[in-house]
Amino acid sequence: MNIYKQICLLILVGFLSTGTAQVSQLDINRIEMMPNLPTPFNIRDWKQVAMQYDSFIYDIQKTGDYLPLVNLQTSGINYPENTAFGLHTYVGTNNPQGKEGINILPSLVGATLVGIDKTNQYDQNWVLMSQDFFNKDDEAIYLNHPAASSGNDWWYDMMPNIYFYQLNDLYPYLGGDETFQFSSIADKMQEAVMAMGGNDAPWQKAYMNYRAWNFASMEPNANGVKEPEAAGAFAWLLYHAWNETGNESYLKAAEWSMEFLNEWNSNPSYELQLPYGIYTAARMNAELNTDYDIEKMINWTFDRGPLRGWGAIVGNWNGFDVHGLIGEANDNGNDYAFQMNGTQQAGALVPLVRYDKRFARAIGKWVLNMSNATRLFYPGFLPDFLQDGSDWSNEYDPDRVIGYEALREIWEGNSPFSTGDATGGGWAATNLALYGSSSIGYLGSLINRTDDPRILQLDMLKTDFYKDQAYPTFLLFNPYNINKTVTINVGTEIVDVYEALSESFLLQSVSGEVALTIPADEAVVISFTPVGGVISYEKNRMLIDGVIVDYMQTVNPFTYAPRIQALAAANYALEVGDTTQVFGKAFDKDSDDLNYEWSTTGGTFHEDGNSRFWLAPQMVGDYEITWVVEDESGNLATKSIIINVVSEINAAPEIISLVSNSTFIEPNGVVTIEAIVTDENDDPLTYEWSANVGSISDGDNTVTWQAPDMETVGEITLAATDDEGLYSSASLEIWVHNFEATAGDIIAWYPFSQNGQDLSGNNLHGEVFGALYTQDFFNEPMSALLTDGINDKVTVDNDPILNFTDAITVSCWFSPKSLPDHEVFLLSHGSWQNRWKLSITPDKHLRWTVNTQNSIGDLDSEILLELDSIYHVITTYDGSWMTMYLNGELHSYRTLNGNIKTTTYPLLVGQMLPDNTEYNYKGIIDEVKIFDYALTPDAATTLFQQTITSVPEQENLHIPLKIFPNPATEKLTVLLPGNVTDNYSIKILDVHGRTILKETSTSQNQYDLAIETWPPGMYYIIFKNGQRSFLTRFMKI
Q1: 62 neighbors 69 (Cβ within 8 angstroms)
Q2: 696-704 long-range CB contacts below 8 Å, 24 or more apart?
Q3: 829 lies in the same domain as 754
Q4: Which of 238, 497, 508, 768 suits 584 as a labelling partner, its CA being 20 to 30 A distant?
Q5: H/E segment holding residue 795
Q6: What is the greatest pairwise CA distance in the chain?
Q7: Is residue 599 pLDDT above 60, yes or no?
Q8: Which residues contact 624 (CB under 8 A, 6 or more apart)?
Q9: Residues 887, 881: contact at Cβ < 8 Å?
Q10: Final residue belonging to a domain, choices 736, 754, 777
Q11: Per-residue model confidence as pLDDT tens digits over 943-964
């Protein structure tokens, strides 16, 4: 270093060292209601607890009641070539072979954070085995169970993906499928955000005020309590994905998510996604110079919000300070705190202070209170009569490392009370919850002790995942009203100690144990930096030897530069002389006075507000459009895009549909598949067929496929390619299964012929409330039920016979009279939360849901329901598969496993749960049947046909229908016999139940139908004469 640089450095260091005033600290209202020094004071060694907890729950050799808590499984569901494992969610669970991602995944992260290698423990690679939570075949994201479906509850769907990203940062070279999983999750999140409205042409944030999102169908669930805080989880995942991959689409989606959250007007706090979003907002402000309102959002996560009253607990319960715990902060004597939420929130918010140091004191104070009160979740820290699982803990957990799920302010007159929801819900024998305790490693990794037990040294890097290079950085809060000096260990190497709040060096050229003085009721943020390191500045960032140590420096004056968030065109490929619109979106944190300059290497611009229309030149080629944004200080930002101009845009072939003569088949069976393909340019096409299993014949648009000799789902794929290499692909699934009839009984049958009587013989009679009897679908008066969608329902008292668990079939006729923008329930036995239900989604799909001991499964119809159309539906579950049949034809199916859960709720027609009329069904429903076994496809077709022909026949009346030709192409002739009485009718339905034709006649005996314009497919003819109905069907080709 030359003399000039040395002098400058000494002057600068001296200047920094003399600063004493701290950067203004912002109070968090709820935290200011907490004491600086909680009492009684007893912070456990949470790092030691986390290590002992991990050793306990993953010990396969444990013996005793409900032990061991972990079990090995020979193969996974998504990765059957790997072993797998399960971990109890509660001690004494009713489902010891079960597993939940919200329990297992954070247990692996937490253990790793405190120094345990989970890739080699007890001779197992637990991290690799946990990849089975990635639902590879269906959803392509992590879910709470290896065979689950998304779309029921956002935090259950989002948090497993956050936990996997954390594991991926801790174990980046695991040797499993993590690289694909990482990108797949990011792709799915980005696709979902775009489906929620995120766009860059023009720029538009997403709308995310939903309960959940179905990542398979890319559709929202708008029912129940909304979880807009999920926008924060999306932003966390997508921002890290962008940091790791550089994919700009991920960054845009992160910003669309964060802009939704930032502009939301009410407190969205619900579970634990919001703190992750606030961390991401602070980091984006620091790294990208965005301007998200951290003060508003961080107050949200502590204030009591409108969703479940969620927030930070403030109070002293019967002599115990419980300040800082997170849960239902009702503030009126019935608070309900949950262990997992406080530790997860600490993991998200402590590293936030690196990026927004204004909250150092508030976060330090809160962690002190929360980490002190967290002991009350654990047996041994309250008397036995103030907890409900102490007997098991006293015998098997003397170290008190498995805590309760929750802490109630008052329970049966006792306060406070360690408990949970499991025993009351019938899920487990105790409320000792692994899923709550599994996050304790997050808290344990953050806390380092000083020689004063009330002054914690919080590690700000431990849970700062995917961070850039950083020096050891710590947050210390002095809760006393006098200055305090503590001893800290800076390590064996000689370092300088930089303090970010005062922007000064507190100590220089030190090593080992040193004394650090902290002002009264203040915090310090210290970094151990290289001795005499070179200081430099990049706008808001102060660096030492090229490593950022302060993201909010105020010593060196600066102005922010503009940042171009997007430059996007409506079309990136044009024919010569065509026009496209180009959109730009830029932001400057400290300037609204921006100048824009557009340029191009060809073509011309036409201005239109914030966008430009670009007219392509008459010459083919690639043309660059450049946008330069400049603020009044001369700071610049530049971005370019390329538009490809061609003589003709070649469109890829379009595969309209793949049609098979059957959607299911037994092993070794053969099906014929026809492809309907068009090409806009009339190019010659080549057809390439493939199948994941079985064998497929050669052919162009028609082939045959032979199924393998095993049960599976065959996926047959066609790639249609034109002569310029553009192609489209489509796939068709064929269910290969041995359809063997199983024994069982009809459990309930409700024909609704002027009453709610059960004709099954089981006397499960229903009580009809408000609903009217109406004409059924075959014109029988008073033979179907019409509900008003307000409060009409049928209630069948719960009975043990209704709670069969192995398999089920549910069938009915229905015709909706209203399709509102929320879910409505046709049938429900405990709803999706407890057992099963059949409903119509807000996007007009029929949904069959079964809740098993392993997971919840949703199966949707592929078609959209229409008002006043008539449908017959049969849904089944056999312990392995869910199916849905519409009008006697197999329509959709999916895998699911586990016994069906039981419930104490009544069986309901037209309503979700007792006393909840929000989702009542408006429409006609008839012929409700419930069986305790799963019908085969043939049996389902038979049931459908029997239902149609079940009206009693008139004596000596025989009415055969003659139709020809069948199959038909252009014309179908229907002949009626001459011995029918007057006033008969003919109705023709398509396979989806839509009425195609309806005629009433008194004389005509022959119908000649012009069907040339009808879509190909199966059609049903229903003939009605007096009390007699008859069904036949034909195929239009």
Answers
A1: yes
A2: 701/674, 701/675, 701/676, 701/677, 702/672, 702/673, 702/674, 702/675, 703/672, 703/673, 704/670, 704/671, 704/672, 704/673
A3: yes
A4: 238
A5: strand 793-796
A6: 119
A7: yes
A8: 600, 601, 640, 641, 642, 643
A9: no
A10: 736
A11: 887 765 443 333 333 345 678 8
Q: Does one domain contain both 900 and 779?
A: yes
Q: What is the DSSP letter of 973?
A: E
Sequence-ordered list of residues with C-beta below 8 angstroms from that of 893, at least 6 positions apart, any chain: 735, 859, 881, 882, 883, 884
- Residue 568, domain member (yes or no): yes
Q: Of 646, 667, 695, which closes a domain?
A: 646
Question: Both 869 and 1006 in a single domain?
Answer: no
Neighbours of 248 (CB within 10 A): 12
- Residue 56 dihedral angles phi and psi, to the nearest 5°: -70, -55
pLDDT value, residue 102 = 98
Q: Check whether residue 762 and residue 725 sit in a common domain.
A: no
pLDDT tens-digit map of 368-411: 999 999 999 999 999 999 999 899 999 999 999 999 999 999 99
3-state secondary structure of 582: strand
Crossing angle of helices 230-245/248-263, nearest 10°? Answer: 160
d(CA 128, CA 112): 14
For the stretch 145-164, pLDDT in tens is 998 889 989 999 999 999 99
pTM: 0.75
Q: Which two tokens stand for residue 1028?
A: 């007699």
Please check whether residue 928 is in contact with residue 811, taking contact to mean a CB–CB distance below 8 angstroms.
Answer: yes
Cβ atoms within 10 Å, residue 75: 11
Question: In this predicted model, what pLDDT tens digit does every residue of 297-341 receive, in sequence order?
Answer: 999 999 999 988 899 999 999 999 999 999 999 877 789 999 999
- The whole-number average pLDDT for the span 1020-1034 is 68
Q: Which of 429, 408, 416 is nearest to 382 (CA)?
A: 416
Helix axes 154-170, 230-245, angle to 10 degrees: 30
Q: Domain of 707: which CATH number?
A: 2.60.40.1080
